């Protein structure tokens, strides 16, 4: 008899992060405008901190370290918050169920930090505050690409919800040469490019830190195996050809 998990099988670690996102947003909205702006910049990732201006910005020198993580907890508006929370449920749920809460949190932090560093590489010294968990969300999408199509090949898409740890992990070489992975990645990059160009219906009107998205996705895609080292590895089937 096959056991089925509940339809809404959301790990506590994912719910906890979303709850923190919401709590931070509510607190910010309750503060006076000047205090809200100070807190937002103090938590935001600002490249200018690393070119000699850390002491002059909200949060001071300590924010040069903490903002690598705290920027993920702040969102520009309710739409931004809802969008990232929805993607956290979609991709973060599968990742957390597969590798467990502690590794999921470590993976989230890792991809978010790499996303911030990628943004820093393109905007070093600029006074451009970056907020939101989109870099980490992109990292989760990249991680899911390493086992999504393995589940589809086995005609067991439900395993992504019921038992994602049982789905074989694509080797990095397989993933880099899989046409479906390449196609999804290309479409995702195109959407990011369209948002930068301000195509109506794609850009929501706020600035898009596409560099953080790309850095997070690359980190998740390339490094997910380090967080998933106990999972079975997918091997090419001898009767399949490309």
From TrEMBL:
Q: Which UniProt keywords apply?
A: Cell inner membrane, Cell membrane, Hydrolase, Membrane, Protease, Transmembrane, Transmembrane helix
Specify the protein's topology with respect to the membrane.
Multi-pass membrane protein
Q: Locate the transmembrane regions by residue number.
A: 7-27, 78-97, 104-124, 130-149, 181-202, 208-227
Q: Which domain of life is it from?
A: Bacteria
Outline the extent of the Peptidase S54 rhomboid domain: 66-223
What's an example of a GO molecular-function annotation for this chain?
peptidase activity
Record-linked SUPFAM superfamilies:
Rhomboid-like
Tell me where it mainly resides: membrane
Q: Which Pfam families match?
A: Rhomboid
What is the name attached to this protein's record?
Membrane associated serine protease, rhomboid family
High-level lineage = Bacteria, Pseudomonadati, Pseudomonadota, Alphaproteobacteria, Hyphomicrobiales
């Amino acid at each position: 008899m096959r056991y089925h998990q509940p339809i809404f099988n959301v790990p506590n670690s994912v719910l906890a992060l979303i709850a923190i996102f919401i709590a931070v947003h509510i607190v910010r909205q309750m503060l006076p405008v000047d205090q809200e702006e100070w807190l937002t910049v103090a938590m935001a990732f600002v490249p200018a901190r690393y070119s000699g201006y850390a002491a002059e910005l909200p949060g001071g020198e300590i924010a040069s370290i903490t903002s690598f993580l705290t920027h993920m907890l702040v969102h520009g508006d309710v739409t931004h918050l809802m969008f990232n929370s929805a993607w956290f449920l979609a991709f973060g749920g599968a990742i957390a169920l597969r590798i467990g809460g502690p590794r999921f949190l470590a993976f989230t932090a890792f991809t978010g930090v790499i996303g911030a560093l990628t943004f820093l590489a393109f905007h070093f010294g600029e006074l451009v505050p970056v907020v939101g968990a989109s870099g980490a969300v992109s990292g989760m999408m990249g991680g899911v690409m390493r086992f999504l199509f393995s589940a589809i090949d086995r005609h067991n898409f439900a395993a992504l919800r019921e038992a994602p740890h049982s789905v074989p992990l694509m080797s990095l070489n397989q993933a880099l040469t899989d046409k479906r992975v390449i196609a999804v990645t290309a479409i995702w990059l195109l959407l990011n490019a369209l948002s930068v160009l301000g195509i109506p219906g794609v850009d929501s009107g706020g600035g898009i830190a596409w560099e953080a998205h790309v850095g997070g996705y690359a980190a998740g895609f390339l490094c997910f195996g380090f967080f998933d080292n106990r999972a079975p590895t997918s091997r090419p089937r001898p009767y399949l050809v490309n």
